[in-house]
Amino acid sequence: MKISKEEVLHVAHLARLDIDETDVDRFAGQIGTILDYVDTLKQVDTAGVPATSHAITLTNAFREDEAQGHLDPQDALANAPEKDDGAFTVPRVI
Fold first, then answer.
1. Which residue, of 15, 35, 58, 70, is most buried by count of CB atoms within 10 Å of its CB?
2. Residue 19 is part of which domain span?
3. What is the pTM of this model?
């Protein structure tokens, strides 16, 4: 599918892209190639193929939410450069 320079400039304007005039012909050719490929894909017989939203059927890759023990406060503060009354001491941020 052939796309004109004017169409490239129009789409670039809509997308708020500043395209150099020297690149317009190259982009027109590249976009035309992409549109030709999409036309090729439209010719594939997809009858009987269920619609999908993901490439794989994995629904949830997260681990089960299980209660865990917490870190002992003394262990948490063991490597702290500065601590005060069971808490980390950090520089004041204003």
1. 35
2. 5-42
3. 0.50
